[in-house]
Amino acid sequence: MLNTAGDAAIRAIPPQQKITNPPTLRPSPTTLTMVRKTIGLPKGMTGPTAPLSERKQIYLPEFTIALVRTPFLSTRYAQFRVPLNLNKLDMRDYLERVYGVGVLSVRSYVQLQPITRITRDGRNMGAWRRPKSEKRMTVELREPFVWPEEPTDLSRWEKESWDSGERFQTQMRRENRQRGDAAEKPDEKMRKAFKEQAEELKQDKEAWRPTWKVLGLDFAHREMANTKNSVPWPKWMKKP
């Protein structure tokens, strides 16, 4: 006998059937492609999670050592420009371990730089100061070392153009130093050169041509002249 409507609803639910062959879940092809096989480390190699004491640390130098050309020294000696915090033991260890150069003795000294002024606008009108000192070390080598001969042909490095630029800069600095108002006055040399070029053009010594003709950029006009249905030449343009 049903007492309430809730009991009737519960009894109306059919009993669960027993599943004899449950379906098996198969992964999709996309799931299989996303699974990656872990790659094992080579034998004797430590991973990134290994302690610091078990790793092989590589320390690269954070300083610069420059070999100085010293023709006045013997072949048994070499001079280097080193940082101020480098000592003799560091220099000996550096040469032996990095370059395999045997060292017998090392001498060092600190060279003070001359007192100069801080330049402002290319003029030495600033405050006086002493630049940072330089440290040099002279090393006695086990085996002699001979510097290679200096190249005589410097055309590969454009030495002539470099020297001409240096001479021009030196001349400009000298002229600006002599005349404080040089920037406010016109360039007399450039003005004279423009005047001479204008006189030559007036005397028809050199035929003037526009830049696009000098560079050969008038190919469009030449193509138009070769075609049958060409556009007539303008009055201001001379036919080639």
Automatic annotation (TrEMBL):
- A single GO molecular function, which one? structural constituent of ribosome
Annotated signal sequence is: none
Report keywords, A-Z: Mitochondrion, Ribonucleoprotein, Ribosomal protein
InterPro entries reported in the protein's UniProt record: Nucleotide-bd_a/b_plait_sf, Ribosomal_uL23-like, Ribosomal_uL23/eL15/eS24_sf
> Region annotation Disordered: residue ranges?
158-202
Briefly state the protein's biological role. Component of the mitochondrial ribosome (mitoribosome), a dedicated translation machinery responsible for the synthesis of mitochondrial genome-encoded proteins, including at least some of the essential transmembrane subunits of the mitochondrial respiratory chain. The mitoribosomes are attached to the mitochondrial inner membrane and translation products are cotranslationally integrated into the membrane.
Q: PANTHER family from the xrefs?
A: LARGE RIBOSOMAL SUBUNIT PROTEIN UL23M, RIBOSOMAL PROTEIN L23-RELATED
The protein depicted here goes by the name: Large ribosomal subunit protein uL23m
To which protein family does this belong? Belongs to the universal ribosomal protein uL23 family.
